[in-house]
Amino acid sequence: MKLNKIIEEKKKQVEREKKKETAKNIAVGTAIGTALGAVAGLLFAPKSGKETREDIANVSKEVVGNVKEKVEEGIDLTKEQYEKVKLNIQKNTEEAKAKVEEKKIKAEEEAKKIEEKSKEVVKEIDESLDETKKIVEDKKENIEKTIKE
Question: Could you name the domain of life of the organism this protein comes from (predicted)?
Answer without folding.
Answer: Bacteria
